[in-house]
Every structure is written in C-alpha cells, then in structure tokens.
C-alpha cells in the first residue's frame, strides 16, 4: 500500500517524506478511486436489475377460472425462447395482445398484466375483459372483430381500475416535475 501511495504522491508532485496530511490526502484519493471502480463493476457485472428482471404478473387464461400468477425471472430461463415468445422486459409495441408461454406448463396461456404507477397494484388490462383462449389465433395473437389482430389495437387502458388514477395524466405530471 505504501508503494502505491508513494507512486501516486510522485505523480501529484508531492515530495517523499512529506507531512502526514499529504499522505492522508493521497490515501483518501486512492480510496475514492477504488470505491468508484467497485461501484462501476458491480453495476455492470450484475448489479440491481429491478427494471427488467423483476417478478412479472400474468393473467393465466388456461386456469379455470382464469387468475393471476407471478413468474420469477429465473422461471423464464427454463423455457427456450422461440418466435413470438417474449421474456420479461422484452415487450415491444403491440406485443401486449399476444399469449405468452407459461414456463410451468409449457403452454401459451398467459397475458401480461399492468402495474399501476400510482397505487403499485397489478391489474388485467380492459382489452382482456371476457377474453378466452378461443379468442387467440394459432400464433397466440388476440383476434379482433372480423379476425383482424389490428382491430384490437386501441388506445390502451386510460385509468387504473383499482385506484382510478388517469395513467396518462400521471405520467404527464411526472414528466413536468423533472
């Protein structure tokens, strides 16, 4: 450790045999650099991934009656992703209307639930009211009127059914605060 401090001290123009305050400053600087490196490595190599790899809530249409199930990120690793199969955090525009693979049964019976940004409760989007497995085509896409999957692409849920907050307005207000 002393060798490292001496080389840092030389680079900073500190004389060898300097006072203790200079060595303390060099030691503090070295400690800050080491802590910064550890924080960077932790975040890059496996830090907290709450945004993507958190528990996902789904409505299982394969159960009688349909009900909510929670799937942990490690459960998604058990199934092999194929065409049309999405894992957590991999949803793209319009993907919310397709059935997803249940890693416990191997069947496509799941629809994704939404998390209210205000009350933090999970709910089934209103586009699935009264929907059964028969309402999906062979590729797992929700069919609209006249068998057209695009007919189902509406504006999405505007309010949380549990707390009643206007979801769009919630995000507008949150953006204005920043």
How are the elements arranged and paired?
Elements: H1 2-11, H2 20-44, E1 56-60, E2 67-71, H3 73-76, E3 100-101, E4 108-112, E5 114-115, E6 122-123, H4 167-177
Antiparallel strand pairs: 1-2, 1-4, 3-4, 5-6
Description:
With 178 residues, this protein is of the alpha+beta class. It has two domains: 2-44; 56-177, no CATH class. Helix content is 28%, strand content 12%. It is built from four helices and six strands, in the order ααββαββββα. The chain has a four-stranded antiparallel sheet. Strands 5-6 form a two-stranded antiparallel sheet. The longest helix is centred in the first third of the chain and has 25 residues, at 20-44. It is elongated and about 80 Å long. Residues 82-96 and 147-153 have low confidence and may be disordered.
């Amino acid at each position: 450790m002393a060798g490292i401090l001496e080389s840092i001290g030389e680079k900073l123009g500190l004389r060898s045999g300097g006072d203790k305050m200079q060595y303390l400053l060099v030691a503090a600087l070295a400690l800050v650099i080491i802590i910064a490196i550890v924080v960077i490595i932790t975040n890059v190599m496996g830090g907290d991934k709450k945004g993507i790899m958190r528990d996902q809530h789904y409505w299982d249409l394969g159960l009688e009656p349909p009900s909510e199930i929670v799937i942990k990120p490690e459960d998604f690793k058990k199934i092999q992703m194929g065409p049309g199969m999405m894992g957590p955090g991999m949803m793209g525009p319009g993907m919310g209307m397709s059935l997803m693979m249940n890693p416990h049964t191997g069947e496509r019976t799941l629809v994704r639930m939404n998390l209210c940004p205000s009350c933090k409760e999970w709910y089934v989007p209103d586009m699935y009211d009264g929907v059964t497995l028969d309402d999906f085509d062979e590729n797992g896409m929700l069919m609209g009127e006249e068998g057209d999957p695009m007919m189902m692409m509406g504006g999405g849920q505007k309010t949380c059914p549990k707390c009643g907050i206007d979801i769009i307005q919630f995000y507008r207000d949150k953006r204005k605060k920043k």
